Amino acid sequence: MTTDHPRDARTSRALKDFLHDEAAGGVVLVLAAVAAVIWANSPFADGYVAFWDRELTVGGGGAAITEDLQHWVNDGLMALFFFVVGLEIKRELVTGELRDRRAATLPAVAAVGGFVLPAVIFLALAPDDALAGWGIPVATDIAFAVGVLALLGSRVPAGAKLLLLTVAIVDDIMAITVIAAFYTDTVALAWLAGAVLGLGVVVLLRRLGVTAIWPYVLVGVAVWVATLESGVHATIAGVALGLLTPTGRVGGRDVLDLFEHRLHPVSVFLVVPLFALANAGVDFRDGALGEAMGSSLTWAVALGLLLGKVVGVGVAVWLCLRTGVGRLPEGVERMHVLGVAAAAGIGFTVSLFISELAYDDAGLVQTAKVGIFTGSLLAALLSVGLLLAAARRESTDGDDSRAEEAAGRRS
User: Which regions span the lipid bilayer (predicted)?
Assistant: First the structure.
């Protein structure tokens, strides 16, 4: 990606800000997840369950919506998270790495490899009553994964971070498709038609040159409500609205940049940590952890995330390079690819999200979450080990080169 063109420079700055926020947000996400686990295993564990089960009604009369607090976070606030994901997908498709077919081919194929193999491993290992959770290990948590790479600082080349982000974004596109297509029980066609109509109104407002933001917000809320009532998961509305956001200047403002600049910090520092606090509270007491570790569901998820991503992404990249249909970013070596592939196995946020959609049985949900914790932690440790090994190899190769140059000068 060049930076001499003003548009490319703007895209580069936006990408740098996005990566910075994701890395910092990953730290907050870890703290929120740890807090949830501590709360759920403390003497106040009953309060954890009671708090998130508390119902809240918004609106009145026939327009009232009643959800418990956990579902307000999962259905409501997470729509904002997916809206920001939609914005970044749109940016990458129009002005970023995904606009270049050759540059996009490798991360796209890598993401497909990291999508298919985890699902296959899960289906091969999971018990019959848990097969609906095949989508759990296919996801990548951008905040956690980018945060792991950020911890290593300059020892990880910028190209590796870009590769991870691009793979994760393509991964998100597929995960969103899975949520919409496979985790929707019934569809109310009238409400779904209303949601589509609302998206049409957004397009019409753009065509009419409306530059004020508030009409889009009102229509966006209406689209969210219609999607929620339709039976399709309401977060899909956030993605659709993000993809409809223009990438050019409207009324003298870069709308996508404006939304992302204002909403991305809210997403990573508030919405996602709240989601972790509401969903990561797994009760490990009374032998529950030992029971979960002995379950094939736990290992179907964990090995899907760890082995499925490392092998799936790694083999897909190797095939792309071997056939010449893709190329690695500058400065990225094979060991970096494996480190990135392992980081893609950190599936925390979206994996937790899908586990709640896949199962009605609370026991299956809890067991799947143990698998998510296990697989994501092992993937993070493996990623750090591989990337540190790559950095040491580069340092050794650099020292050898300098020694050879010095010897040449002396002779």
Answer: 23-42, 106-125, 131-153, 162-182, 188-205, 217-243, 263-284, 296-318, 338-358, 370-391
